[in-house]
């Protein structure tokens, strides 16, 4: 990997523009170039497709019939149905004819210590509809401390699902066209920290269990939740993409210890 955190075949200018427009100050602060950076993994992984979104192979079998990627964005804002406050930013957004797919990626975050989530009254407004009640129940249980996750940021995932739902309903009102929404949780399972310390295998197993539990809780709601590992994603790229993509997947795997 280069010192600035980008591999040689990544469109540097487009990456810089995407992150400059997003909150977090990832580039200027130096976070992006950190050896633990999750943003760098996403930028290198999906940045390869910014100028060729149609070459992104399908990696979710249930979406195969609609898999025609018309646009791919990094750092995509999904605005809630109100103007003020903070709105969710997804790592990647994929535009398909009948679907909007949001991707939230994690690398080392699940294996660090976490604070209790901050959940404001705004998220309990009656604006999400009857088909988002399972996500809402998770958020309410987190707020009431009836439910907790040690490794999974479930509150963030609910907020992302709300953002996707808002964008899709706004689009339907404006165009009369209805697309479905998917939230994909893409996570790495590193065996060691960059300094060589092993990642606790118990935390890795616990994270998998919490992902499965969350998936069951929100199954059936309007925004479909799907989880997969980076290793699974790269395997699908190697199997279904051109040779150039296989080389990219191999370089990504070596550079980020996947």
Supply database-style keywords.
14% strand; five-stranded mixed β-sheet; alpha/beta
**Overall helicity:** 25-40%
Structural class of the secondary elements?
alpha/beta
Number of helices: 8
Largest sheet: 5 strands, mixed
Compute the gyration radius: what is it? 18 Å
Give the neighbour order of strands across the main sheet.
1-2-3-4-5
**What is the domain tally?**
1
Overall average pLDDT: 90
Q: What does the overall shape look like?
A: globular
Low-pLDDT stretches are: none
Q: How large a portion of the residues is in β-strands, by DSSP E? A: 5-15%
Number of distinct beta strands: 5
Terminal Cα separation, in Å? 14 Å
Q: What pattern of helices and strands is seen along the backbone? A: HHHEEEHHEHEHH
Any overview of this molecule?
This protein has 258 residues and is α/β, with parallel strands linked by helices. It has one domain (12-256). The protein has helices at 12-20, 26-29, 38-47, 133-143, 154-175, 201-218, 230-240, 243-256, and strands spanning 71-77, 89-95, 99-106, 180-187, 223-229. α4 (133-143) packs antiparallel against α5 (154-175). The longest helix has 22 residues, at 154-175. 36% of the residues are buried.
List the helices and strands and how they pair.
Elements: H1 12-20, H2 26-29, H3 38-47, E1 71-77, E2 89-95, E3 99-106, H4 133-143, H5 154-175, E4 180-187, H6 201-218, E5 223-229, H7 230-240, H8 243-256
Parallel strand pairs: 3-4, 4-5
Antiparallel strand pairs: 1-2, 2-3
Helix pairs in contact: 4-5, 7-8
């Amino acid at each position: 990997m280069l010192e600035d955190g980008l591999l040689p075949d990544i469109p540097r200018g487009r990456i810089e523009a995407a992150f400059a427009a997003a909150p977090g100050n990832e580039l200027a602060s130096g976070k992006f170039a950190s050896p633990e950076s999750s943003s760098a993994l996403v930028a290198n992984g999906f940045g390869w497709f910014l100028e060729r979104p149609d070459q992104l192979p399908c990696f979710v079998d249930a979406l195969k019939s609609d898999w025609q990627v018309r646009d791919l964005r990094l750092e995509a804002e999904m605005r809630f149905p109100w103007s003020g406050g903070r709105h969710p930013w997804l790592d990647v957004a994929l535009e398909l004819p009948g679907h909007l797919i949001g991707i939230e990626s994690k690398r080392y975050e699940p294996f660090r210590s976490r604070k209790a989530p901050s959940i404001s009254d705004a998220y309990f407004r009656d604006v999400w509809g009857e088909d988002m009640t399972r996500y809402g129940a998770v958020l309410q249980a987190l707020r009431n401390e009836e439910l907790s996750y040690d490794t999974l940021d479930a509150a963030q995932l609910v907020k992302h699902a709300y953002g996707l739902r808002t964008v899709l309903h706004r689009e339907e009102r404006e165009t009369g066209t209805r697309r479905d929404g998917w939230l994909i949780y893409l996570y790495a399972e590193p065996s060691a920290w960059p300094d060589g310390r092993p990642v606790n295998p118990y935390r890795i197993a616990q994270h998998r269990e919490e992902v499965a539990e969350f998936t069951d809780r929100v199954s059936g709601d309007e925004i479909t939740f799907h989880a997969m590992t980076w290793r699974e994603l790269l395997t699908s790229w190697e199997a279904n993409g051109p040779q150039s993509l296989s080389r990219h997947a191999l370089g990504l795997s070596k550079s980020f210890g996947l």
